[in-house]
Write a structure and sequence with these properties.
single chain, globular, 254 residues, 7 strands
């Protein structure tokens, strides 16, 4: 059996009705896993789950809407995953928020708090909800989708970058805390990817020109190009990797 085979594994993936989260869900199922599709609204989640089940058979995916700002919604997400599949082996914290684009001087207090709550605190909540069963089985993988914004300074994404840097530290802390229980915690830091959330960047001709000019691959990334890295971190191929940040950016940070 391939090290990348996810047969018998169940993954919760937040923000998976589109973009990177959707691509990760599709690739995990293609590699034998079962997935819980989640985003704020039920209808888009249902659409993705229906498509996956039509291709891979009923039971490959379920859909559970959850607002990551609500602790109750997140607990319901975990409970529904267990009700449907009996377990959670992999957690992918992909959903994030960025309501402000511009210098730090122009961000409101409410916007700043929303970014920190949704991009850091909600991940902490959700991880704590799945850890007990992972500890009981002495096995589990937690993946946070961070960003290369957390690795360098920025003039337009300050609070978002702070939250993504904090996610990197969160995985380092949790890797230390839970290594004895064989629970691995890692980050993926994408570069500029063609998603709705990054639309303000890649739809701006000047921004895209600058990014592609300074990226060795001379293009922006696609959501599917992050999915394989998530499968790696979810699978037995990465059993000796924890506390790490895997940068997938076409080389732009070099």
């Amino acid at each position: 059996m391939s090290q990348f085979n996810l047969q018998g594994k169940v993954a919760i993936i937040t923000g998976s009705s589109k973009g990177i989260g959707k691509a990760i869900a599709e690739e995990m199922v293609a590699n034998g896993g079962r997935v819980v599709i989640s985003s704020r609204k039920q209808e888009p989640c249902d659409a993705v789950a229906t498509t996956i089940n039509a291709e891979h058979g009923d039971g490959a995916a379920i859909a559970v809407a959850a607002n990551i700002s609500s602790k109750e919604d997140l607990q319901n997400l975990v409970d529904k995953a267990r009700d449907a599949f009996g377990r959670v082996d992999v957690l992918v914290c992909n959903a994030a928020t960025n309501p402000h684009f511009g210098p730090m001087a122009t961000i409101s207090d409410d916007q700043f708090r929303k970014i920190l709550d949704n991009n850091i605190v909600s991940n902490h909540w959700l991880i704590q909800m799945v850890l007990p069963e992972m500890k009981a089985r002495k096995e589990g993988s937690v993946i946070i989708i961070s960003s290369i914004a957390g690795l360098r300074g920025t003039v337009d994404l300050g609070a978002y970058a702070i939250s993504k840097a904090a996610d990197m530290q969160l995985v380092r802390n949790l890797a230390h805390e839970h290594g004895d229980d064989n629970i691995r915690v890692n980050c993926i830091a994408p570069g500029l990817i063609r998603t709705d959330m990054a639309r303000a960047l890649w739809e701006n001709p000047e921004t895209e020109k600058h990014v592609t000019a300074t990226t060795p691959l001379h293009r922006i990334g696609e959501p599917s190009e992050i999915a394989g890295t998530a499968v790696y971190l979810a699978s037995s191929a990465s059993t000796y990797m924890t506390g790490q940040v895997l940068v997938v950016d076409g080389g732009s940070t070099i």
